[in-house]
Batch of 2 targets.
Target 1
Amino acid sequence: MADLPPPPPPPPEDYDLDILPPPPPPPVDYDMSALPPPPPPPQDDFQAPLPPPDDFQAPLPPPDDFQAPVPPPDYDLDSEPPPPPPQVLSESAGGGDPRASLTDMGQRARSRESDTASLSSRRSTWSSTSQHKGPRRPPSRQSLASTPPAGERRGPGGVVLQRQVSSASMAAYTQPFMLSEEAQGASSLYGTMSKAARKAAKTQRQPYQNAETYGTIRRGNAGMNRYDLHDHKSGSSSSRDVRNLQWDELGRLSRNSLHSVSNGSQMTLSGSDLAPIPQEEAGQQDFLTRLKPVPRLVSEEGVGMAGERVTITDALSNVDVLDDLPLPDQQPVIEAQACSVVYTANFDTNFEDRMAYVTGVAKYMEEAATHAELNKLLEEGENHAVMLYTWRCCSRAIPQPKSNEQPNRVEIYEKTVKVLSDEVKKLTKFMNFQRKAIDVFCNQIKRLCHQEKRKDFVSEAYLLTLGKFINMFAVLDELKNMKSSVKNDYSTYRRAAQFLKVMSDTQSLQESQNLSMFLATQNKIRDTLKEKLTAIPSYEDLLCDVVNISVHMFENRMYLTPKEKQMLVKVMGFGLFLIDSDICNINKLDQKKKIKLDKIDKIFKNLEVVPLFGDMQIAPFNYIKRSKNFDAKMWPLCSASTTSPQADLMCHLPRIRDEHIKYISELARYSNEVITTYKETARTDAENKDIADLALRGLQLLSEWTSVVTELYSWKLLHPTDHHSNNQCPADAEEYERATRYNYTDEEKFALIEVIAMIKGLQVLMARMETVFLDSIRRNIYQEMQDFVQLTLRDPLRKAIKNKKELLRTILVSVRETSADWVKGMEPPDDPALKGKKDPDNGFEIKVLRRNVGPSSTQLYMVRTMLESLISDKSGGKKTLRKELDGQHLCQIDEFHKTSFFWTYLLNFSETLQFCCDLSQLWYREFYLEMTMGRRIQFPIEMSMPWILTDHILRTKDASMMECVLYPLDLYNDSAYYALTQFRKQFLYDEIEAEVNLCFDQFVFKLSEQIFAYYKHLAGSILLDKRFRSECSLHNMRIHYPPANRYDTLLKQRHVQLLGRSIDLNKLICQRINSSMHKSLEVAIARFEGADITSVVELEGLIEVNKLTHKLLSQLLVLDDFDAQLREANHNVLAPYGRTTLHVFWELNYDFLPNYCYNAATNRFVKAPVTTFAQPVQRDKPPNVAPYMVWGSKALNVAFNTIYSQYSGFLGPPHLRSIVRVLGYQGIAVVMQELLEIIHSLIQGNIHQFTKTLLQAMPKQCKLPRYDYGSPGVLGYYHAQLNDIVQYPDARTDLFHHFRELGNALLFCLLVEQSLTQEEVCDLLQAAPFQNILPRPYCKEGEKPETKQKRLEAKYAPLQIVSNIERLGTAKQAMIAREGDLLTRERLCCGLSIFEVILTRIQTFLEDPIWHGSPPANGVMNVDECTEFHRLWSALQFVMCIPVGANNFTVEQLFGEGLNWAGCCMIVLLGQQRRFEALDFCYHVLRVQKVDGKDEAVKGIQLKRMCDRIRRFQVLNSQIFAVLNKYLKTSDPDNLPVEHVRCFQPPIHQSLANQTYQRPDHLR
């Protein structure tokens, strides 16, 4: 070893293990053709290498000013060995001969390569787990524990040399020595990175430096010794190797290799001392190139000093670049540990390295060999148990011949034999195995029960292995008894084989007969084992020891996984059954105090049922009941009828909660300390011990909680409920359904969920700290073992040597030589204790190393076994070794023995953590599937325990449990992991996967539905009128808000791990919520379509509640735009009109126009009392949906229905405002256009026809009677003249109905525009502050309005949209802002009026001559002629004004004011308003009646009543004319059109026609 280069010194104590990468993977997939041939191993006849070629040049010497780099100041090098000095290869160094220099260099390289080979072969022995990321130390004596097989060569120091080593492995070890100073860049001496250096690296945005073979990271600015290997060829390793670096002639790293190294590997070089990477190779370096260079604050001497300051611009730019960093989402952790496929190294050698510990006691080495064989049998037995448990019946799927004459009978039997032959071979192997295992077990019992051996010491581990055999026999026997499908399949095979005469020879027939009898005989394994044991003398003594050690370990909790605990209980029960026989009575053994039945009775009562295998369970006390000498009096607790505490989870829950809170509080303290604090020095021994104890305590708690869950589940399976005990359980429920679905109360389900959540949650926390735990565990175990072996055992060893106790000395020396790791590789020769002398007065110092490595499994077994022999009561001699030790030393050895029991579990922390949290048993149901006898292929998810618990949370909507809803689903992960790793059955995994697919779909569906219903309920509660809520409270009717729930945590889950899949739960829920939102909007529109037009107010409310729901959900979900969803539900994506627009028009056309009457006093339309003028309206029935689809809950539905019922029965401003807001401009335009079509059809259709008919019935002339006739005479005259009109039968029905439709359409257009104007005014008022439209400020005396106005403008300047966008935005944005501002300003200022356009369009419909009549005969106007429309309307108005009887409906009641609006509108548009007002019949009657004031009955018409009605109609007409003229702008004198006035000669009476006119002044 002297000629080997020294390994790198150990790293400093301030590195952080959390960020170190794993070691490079072994080169398994390299292209071997691309690798250079490995160098041959050293031979005795080794020859010097060939001389170099002639053109060889020696390497350049280092520059004159070369200085060794100074180590970084943050390391303390006093305690570390100095690095080797730089090796400079020059002619002077090699005696002036470059050839000799090259030869020396080649020898050194081969020496390093040989050392590399040996180190590579031992690398797996150095590390304790594959996930260890800490630095590795050189091997010690305790790790060199393998004996080379024959034919292997040994190197210096007995190191085993490999025959061949790959170049990649060589590069991995020699890389630290091969890198030049330039290539090393900023690497340190130790290959580690302190936290300070990492912070600096993060600041410069540089990736971590080269990953060494030790799994560490090298830092910069401290050069490493360079070995220039001139014979190293560039590109010798594979392109996939992380060490794919190219070297130039001087041994420096080529810049061309940077890109290939940085892609996909963990090794990246710092670019501080290298030239920039070319642009074409710097695609991934874009992030780094955006950073500004940060100046170094180190002087030439390497001492920190105040250097150049970083500018604020560069610093801010570096901070801005951080925005581009992809950071992991901060989602809450509410799921279990992800189950991923990882490589876990198994360092349990099963005692294969036992021969390496030649210093151990030979007896225990032999016991280790026996252990190895027994462990192999146990593993094989586990495989057979898996085979039996997962056996599915094949014979049911195979067709059976129905008769002997069936033609394909032979073919069926041949296929049967072919299918089942492999399965039968497994059964044959199983039969042979159980026979062999029983023989081996009985031989071991017989050997240990020999009279000479009974006094010998039998180790605890050996007794425990025998107990595992007893457990294996019990499991295999119960599995064989349970699986009737095995017997059925074999019977089918045997029948077919006998028919085909496959088993023709005697041996095959005998073997078949034996297998048939073996499978058919119940309890065959158990009875055979007991029969053979009873033939062994004193076998009960050894089995008592096995039972007692099981009781001892159970009571002292010397187990860690739940399986081990349950195995101990099964060993007690089955062991006592094997002991009890005709020749041995367990009751007498209790009296002899060989066993303590009272303790076992208590254990069996507390644990009535234990899992046997999978979902099979067994009551251990049943073994006692079946024993030959069972006496119930000896088992008072188990014989009692009280329920076991195992069945009551609620009694365990408070304790589990307290333990969980206390532990996670302490764990959080260490976790926060690791994350947030930085310590310059490594942890002390006390700190490592505390963390190791914390890890052990956590594993014990997890194991205990898992045991509680699995034991409760087993008890429930063995005690199913029935319809008498549970009313919800049907009488015909299946056995498994009664054991799972109906066997748990709600409280028990919640308790189960809570405990499972605590188990899985703590598993996540502990897995996160695995690196910290493993580091402290290994250091603590190493420290405790070495301190105990090197320090604690010194005094017992000194006394043993002094007192010449040779056996004690031999064992103590064997313990020390087996496990001691001395400072200099050997025990101090001058130790006084080795000579039996006391230490000198000044003491004898022994320095114990501190390493990060634990003992091997064989090493730990040897040490514990030898120490156990010292403290055991049995030693094989007359005097036990226990009495030769002092009490103090005895206590120390006993304490070490107890403590070291858990070390094996702690060293395999990851695997132990998985086993302690395994709840896969809660899914498996092979036993119950077997019981169905083929009726069930698989049980539905309603009977599956994981889904039962998940669905219970969703069904109860318990807020405290909602965050735990993902933990029961992790039971599928456990089951799938167990199916793949333990059972290794693909079909089981496929069944689990199929159930997970179904359950997760159900889970997402139900959860999405709940979330939507919750937020819909919340939105509805927010929008519910507060006064209405308070009034309901006064009447003891409370409408509650939804109880707060924790859905927000679930909605943040972006990567839920389930069966190896990463599921974006947020996205899935988002898709469902979008669907529910769309459906909710469709329901709202469908409800509107199923009701009349007055329900438009409710539609607007439903849209608002959905909009608020969308807003609340959008805080957690990325939902589709609400307006887009509304357009889609409204079918308004591509069409110019949607469902709401169509239904509004449909209602207007078929219900509103023909059936509603307008009342100007209330500004409402009400339904007419008589609706026989139009056909009944047929509407679709509203959909029947869940309450949450409407307003959110049943109570809210009732409340809102009550509120909106007040808007039914009339159409007024609220409805019109809702129509405006719901339809929008586009919908209003569509409705207006359709209404114009209706008006057009009315005017030019029915009204035109009626007008034409009625004008023929009108008198040719109807003059205005003189006042002299009096009002009765005038009324009588008109009644006589208009008698045909009055008696016209269709006037009061169809004609008035058509005019009502026309008037309602006009009124609807007018009122819609008014509502639209109000909405626009509100928009303008709200937009005013953003458009610099400010109110005029109030000014006191002496204040200038201009100053205050400017102050207000300056105050609100940041709100000005246009100016700000023009200043900060782009040109396109500024243009859009200006156009939007202009549109808003001109919205109402341009004087546009919809109603004016409507009137103008209607005016074009009145071009027919019938409306205007014949030209006037006098050339001016028609006075007495009845040819124009206003004369017809006067006649119709006369009919309207005739009073009706008390029991009859008036015209107003039947048709409303729409009738008047229709006539007046047509009169105005025809330009006949003035003539109508002057020549109207009713107005003339009213004027005459005002003069004479008479009140008479004329032809049954009361004059006074009629005049009152005429007066009301006159006022109404005046109002209508005023409104129409306002929109037609005829009242504005500035806008009056220019009139062409003609002057006519005034008419002259005939009596004066012949007289000559003379001026008055001439008459005088």
Target 2
Amino acid sequence: MKQKMNTFFKDEKKIFCLFVIVILLFSTLVPTLSLGQSQETTTPSSELLSEKVSKYDELLSSTERVEEASVESNTNGSRESISLEESTKESATTSQEIQTFQGKAIAGDILSSVVVNDWELFRDKNGSRESLTTEPKSTAASNQAYTFGFSWTIVAEKLERNLLPGDYFVLEIPQVEDSNSGHWYSPGSAWSTITIDTEEGPKPVYRYRIEHSTEKDKQVVRVEFLDGVDQLHINTLDTELEFPGFMNYVMKEGTQQVTFGQDKDGNALAKAITFEKTPLNAANGFSYKFGGAASNNTIQWGIQFNGAANVELGGDEVNYSVNGGAGSQNQGFYLNKPDRDVWNPWGSHYTDVDAPIGKEGGGELGGYVEDVLPAGAELAALTIAAYIQIPIGLTPENYNQQTGVYPSSVAGYQSFVLADYGSGPTYRSGSDTEAILKPKVGTGFSLLTQGTGETKAAFKQRIQSTPYQYGVYKEASGVSTVMMHYGSLKKADNQQQKLSELTTNPYTGRTITNPISNQSVNITEFAAQAADFSIKLGYYAEEDRELLENYYSITYGDSNVIKGASASYNISLAIRYPPETPSGEIENTSEIYTHSALTLNRPTPEEMPKRNTGKADLQNPYGSISLNANQALLQKFDVERDANDGYIPINGAKFKLQVKNGTKWTDVKKSDEVVYFTTDGISYYEIENGVTVEKIANGLVKVDFSALGLADGTYRFVEIEAAAGYDEENSPNWNGEAVVSDEFAIPSATSRGPTVAVWNKKLPQAKYTVKHYVQKNEGSTAKDNFRLDKTEEKSGYIGQKIIGEPLLELLTSYNYSEVLSIEHGLIEGRVTADGELIIELYYTIAAEVPFTFYKQGLNGDMMPSVDSNGNQLFDEEGREKKVVFDIYEYIGPDRPVTYPDGTGPKSKPGDWNKLYTVTTDALGRIRVPEINDPAELAKYYAIVEVETYPGYVLPENDLNSSDREVYWVVRLSDETMFSMPSWAHGTEVDKPDFEKPSSSNGNRYILKNRKPEISLFKVNERNEPMPSSDKQKVQFDIYRWTAGGYFNENDPYYWSPQWMKLDSNVTTDNQGYFASIGKTGLSGSENKNFDWYAIRETSTYSGYQLAEGYWLVKTGWNPTTQQFEIFEVKYKVVQGNGGIDAESPGHKISDDKKDLYFTNKVTATSFYKEDGQQNPLGGVHFSLYKPKAGEAGETGSEDPEAVNTKWDLTKPIEKISSESNSDKGKVTFEDLIQGDYLLVETKTLPGYQLPLGSWIITINFYGDIEAIKGRGDPLPPAFRVEAGNYYLPNYLINSLPKAGGYMRVALVVLGIVLLGSGIILSQNRKKYK
């Protein structure tokens, strides 16, 4: 029985093991049973992905749970940081208008609704409130911090709607009346969020902070309303805000009006504040680095070097045991301690300093500083100035004792020992008047240049071999090191230049006796200049002048302990960064190898070199040009710099694009032809004073690889034709065969596409001379009858052929004679290096020609047909630029009439006699010398324009299409002049302009021409051009209203003859441009006066909605602005037999009314939800998240639970798959523009598994789905694609998925089976034993 029982128990263990395995298998095969049940209740869209993962993980074995504990802990840590409020605080999105649909309100700037009730500046001093603006008022202490507070109200009557998420307003911080006297300053603040409590927890209502304005020394208070305001349903708000840490940087003593905000009438609230005089602060003597002024691509860095030496000469000394060491305010020096006993006589105390490391080649190293520049950065300028400081507390009493005085942080005198502005050291001249003078000739720092093959160590050794030497060493990587060596700074054998040697004259001639040492002291010129500066700043009075001169001469002059040597220096480095460097914060670190009195006397001397880092914001206009990952930017620059040391862009350089295939480069072709690009200007936008301003950056090529249909790969630009005057082989980018750019990858690894720069060097130039001789008296053409009238000094490229060009200004009174120029002078030659080429041109006196008319085009420019040599002019496309007129004499009855049509030379040839056909000359004139006697001048003449420049409007004179004739009529005897307008059934629609002679126009007759400049463009939602390519096209049909005497806007575009089709399927170019319109029409009160066009879109990108209707564009000539302008744009759709008004898909007229930008909406992005058998599933919930605005959305993590996630989780777009039979399972998201989106399934149907993980959907430039990528662990099910549609499966709880992320489930099942098998084998093994 016992044996049976044992056997039973043994078998029972096997049965139990099998039972456990079955249970585990069952729970694994239906792992989402409990999860599916939980999903029957509503899952909030804000539920985090980690919560879903944790629910799933609870079903795994305890062994697996232990193994994943560390991962789960990390996930939980991330999850805790993603609360709604924290996400709002961390998001640095800029305020943007929230566009709503069909008449709903739009969020935006609500400043006009904000009223500031009151404001105050105050501080807490010794427990009591000290107010600057409320009685009893205190005076404002300079360089002190105050708290700024204000109360404000949103006025419902002004707002006229409820507050919306996205509303914002901006107020400048308090502004002083005299901006030159200084300003208030706030260091800025992080976002602070105001929340309300709801049943669902706290909700953010608005946030606020101090941020920097685009204007210098100005900050603003910015308030932005958040999602929580939607739950309040309010149109008014009263609240107060406070900001601590407002610094008073006003230097001017006295009372000023300070303004902030606006009252109910829109006026600023002004309060009187009394400011104290700016006190001098004691210098602490530390060497430090700081970022100063910044301009395009350049930052000016500053370094204060060995400032402790001047503090010592001022009577102080370092004692860390008394003054507390690092962390103490005084940092080793006594400074302004009033109770101190240590007052060294002025100029007597100085610590010998040295550099323990950094000397190349052995020996002792004196003052030495290095500054490392990143690859591609260049030293644009370097200045080093010796300086001394204005004293604090100088009085006649303490002068005699030489106590109680210490140097301030304000320089009283500076003089350069180096002034290099990019071309080596410069020196002062006798006419220099700068506040800081350049070195005298033969003094100061000397420049050493890097030798071929020289190592960095060898170059450094040369720099350190002699005092006052500097240079820049450039490594093969492009990294540069600026090296500055000062030499010995010790008392004995000090190698610094004396301060008295820096002035033009060393001494003033006055001598005093030092009251402490009884030494004779010469008053130095630098001391006199420092005294004058101290008095002008208001720190001392005129009666203190000699006292100041004495102090400066004793402390820093020739009689001090270092014999008047310069002890402290201000270093300024202007660093030019590569043009591809993005805008933003830049760091720069200097290495100071020399101890100062402060670092040497520390209990533990500071480690050398001392590394000081500064930060500054770089501004780069080229960084403002938008680039997506499939776009590249080529920059073309001159290796030289302009007068302001800026980059010189080069337009007109021609490039081709090459793609890398293995190790070979091949030309990029389209339709078997090489694709070429020419550098030119590209528009970008900057905010100036709160206004968006369009600007042009030149020397650029922007290539959109998607638009061109080019494959991903490695590319480079190759120059095939340099711009005129540039030498290809001297370019730093010359590879022995061509000028080539760096190679780059498409798409780029970052969200911003690659930028490459290419440089060219101008050909060597030399001067040449052009002399112009004019005839003295009419008749003789002998050489002695000519006098030299004008001489031109010009430059050309050596070897360049020069053909003399007659001066246009001389052609108004003289005729150029090529025959006489050849006979008496020289009309052509080649530029030589010696500059001896002299061109000599000769002119004869021109007879007066009364019949002279100037032809004027756009912007008042004349319209010549030839150059001064008589050569035909051509435009950039090779078309002739020619203006031709027919001249007719009136021979009809009485005089010509101005009305009606049909009276012109072509309509009535019997009334007009054609005399001449003339072309404009080099001055843009037409001249008929034959019309000159009184009888001829008393006749009427018609001037009919028969040919004009490409792109200009030729006045209508074609009787085949109408009886309209447009021309000018003139009678010179009495200066009668009028133009014959174009009429249309009694309506004047065109009339050529002219000017009669007057003092304002040089007593000229001027005929004016018109150029249609209204350009049509197609852009997307981000105002980016929508170019056409072989892959995707944007095309339009263009119609013009030609019916005369009336205009009916409801006649549809296809009605003929009212509308005439001008162009069919015109295609956008790389800038989105597709046509120019505007030929006639005058601004007036009736629509029939204008020139009307119908613009109909015929094709667009596959991911964009094709415009259903068409745009009506109303144009005409504006006599005031002298240009064709857009006066109105309407949108129509055809209904029945007419056109009716409709909502425009989008259009925008430029500020100058000359450009019209059409936009379209993207098509909806959709997919279908289905089960495992591809049956549609309705009622499934999804959330879609957009990236955060700005850099956070570009560089953040794709992980939605990461602290730095790129996704804005506060604003999900909620959608449910359709349950309608017509489109069951369809999920649709509207308005998804180019970019990435995070898709999360948040609720599924009962009995179905809720997918884990998420999907990243990428929308391309054309508005189509480019890719869908699953993310997470495990991965979610994969989308399937069929016939261009996307399908996303869900699986039943008891059904394993065929694809996607559930492989992990299968692995768990397999693991449990193996585990169970192991247990059984173990039991059997024991049995056999």
